[in-house]
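CORE FACILITY INTAKE
Project code: CF-77B
Contact: R.S. (postdoc)
Sample description: multi-component assembly, two entities in total
Requested service: structural model of the whole complex
Turnaround: standard
Below are the sequence entries exactly as provided by the requester. Do not edit them.
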Amino acid sequence: MGPGPINADPRVLRAMSAGLIGQFDPAMTTYMSQTQELYRRVFQTRNEHTLLIDGTARAGIEAALFSLITPGDRVLVPIFGRFGGLLREICERAGAEVHVREIPWGTVFRPEQIAEAIAQTRPALVALVHGDTSTTMMQPLDGLREICDRYGALLYTDVTASLGGNPFDQDALGVDAATAGLQKCLGGPSGSAPAAFSPAAVERIERRHSVEAGLRDPGQYASEHRIRSNYFDLGMIFDYWGATRLNHHTEATSMLYAAHECARIIVTEGLAETIERHRVHGAAMHAGVLGLGLRDFGEAQHRMNNVVAVHIPEGVNGDAVRADMLNDFAIEIGTSFGPLHGKVWRIGTMGYNARRDTVLSTLAALESVLVRHGVSVPRSGGVEAALDSYRAAGNPA
Amino acid sequence: MGPGPINADPRVLRAMSAGLIGQFDPAMTTYMSQTQELYRRVFQTRNEHTLLIDGTARAGIEAALFSLITPGDRVLVPIFGRFGGLLREICERAGAEVHVREIPWGTVFRPEQIAEAIAQTRPALVALVHGDTSTTMMQPLDGLREICDRYGALLYTDVTASLGGNPFDQDALGVDAATAGLQKCLGGPSGSAPAAFSPAAVERIERRHSVEAGLRDPGQYASEHRIRSNYFDLGMIFDYWGATRLNHHTEATSMLYAAHECARIIVTEGLAETIERHRVHGAAMHAGVLGLGLRDFGEAQHRMNNVVAVHIPEGVNGDAVRADMLNDFAIEIGTSFGPLHGKVWRIGTMGYNARRDTVLSTLAALESVLVRHGVSVPRSGGVEAALDSYRAAGNPA
């Protein structure tokens, strides 16, 4: 019940134990195409270039940024948590001239702040996190497309923590590039990064298209303006996933099965229903921690559905509480990074763990551990508040 | 039965369906440490910095080369197949001044050729493939350490195709950095890259050590000489796998389980026994294709145990034969890349597929398909030659 990775859906684990098939076996390429179509529905996009990056969520981020950024490009990174800092440093490593704007952790940007920063910096790319688990905040993206269009900037966002558990409509928002991971609301293991790219993003990437030596005729071997990474060269990855099926890496087949199953489960449940499930169980957990007398962190109206942060009560050893939760109840909760390390606990309700039983068990266990640590806690305050929240939501299972 | 990926060992597939655990759960970090110890035995090394890169074999290559190469470094890449070309282009993208030496596909370098090239180019790093599946050749590495030492060069080798199926003793050979993948002789799925780094390699990497913003105190945030990739910054990955357990990516837990099981199976069978199994079944397949009247490609004495290439007989449509093998017998065999595309078939016997039944079934099926395609083939010539080869090896199961 931490901020992710979380318990994977058993169906996803089972999917990974299917036998492997050759990477250009028609069964395999069909499976790849199906996966693309499933993720178009999860990202809510028609983008042809919707695919998986073989690596963790961070690999997806790096593939997008290294492929979109030509060294020297100006990039604007609005930072409201740790993962904004990660975007900054990946942009720096990609050779960008990086401009950042930072606001206090626990808040999000107002559109006019971003508009002003874009007007000042005239970036080729705006890169920002959608939901930053370090603070549990979700940055509203409405209106950013229009602002970016005014200055011809592309818009990238990291939806690792938010996708599947919070509203995200890539095409309606006009997001050019979005990358995710399986280990949050998608209910799978870390190790595959679904990603989707708009035609404008693809156009910018294809300008630097190159073909690996030994695959086609040597004339197509480009040596200038190549993307700084081979593994994350999206032009090559597009060739691998697209009609040409040009060899690049060897697709991580078991992770493809996992990614496929994660999306299939969501599409079967219904994307709107999946998001609503996250909202309901997240709200119950939020009500529950407040019912235990804990104080939530950050602007509550901008909290992601799937994770809540609470201040660790004064005088309480946060790590000792976490250890007791893990050792006595086999329930993991998190702390956070940097300025929030040891200051907050983060409790997740996402993917397979966004359930009534997990929410109530976590609150009951937390109450008992807090009591043992000398915290004055209303008896059953967490469980009762969560049950009230469930009742108000029509008492879902 | 292609050049890899191959059918994974069922035990590996089963291992992936185990439930996930938190990334800093003591059970997880213990499991990471066990995995490191298992791979020390597979690489035959005492290198403390033995770990997994989260991505395919190519991710391991890029992590090693991006972390070992400072832009401007001279690097020597001896090329004897497609994957040497890949090393070249990754080194170029890492910003190296790359010097290559190329020899005809189907041959390997003599040590004096490499010594001469090192003397001429004085590289900071020599990067070469151990076994290149595109040609099936395995480059002998003996003596290269001494040659590299003469000029202070580090030695990197890609053992993706060879490890576990052919002799490779990292410490005895004095290899500074070696990276692999699971999908060949290790008998697992693509998606995790075991890698091992000598103290000299670690020393070079640690010179450019940096810490991600938001993780520790800001004073340690290095902005100069940083490695060009965050995802592949081995200094950070060492911090994640080492005693400090500093957060980097979210470890791909299911792939860790797979990698762990691949190595556990090999260590249980015995590394020497596993290699011998590859030798015996590879020799039977080699004998078998010769027994079918096919002509092998490349210098037979330098062939890897686990894959054999044969010339496609004149007038035969190689892809049609491959399609019949796949559609009628569910057996995949490969062709190759670049100059060998459509010229050779490549048949693998590796990992879980290095077995008597798979070898004999493949040869029987191939005979039947060749006959259908009008090739004059000695009746049962493949199976009988393989059986003779098995008898000469003491008739193993």
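Facility notes:
- The mean pLDDT of chain A is 95.
- Chain A touches chain B through 64 residues (CB under 8 Å).
Invoice: internal transfer
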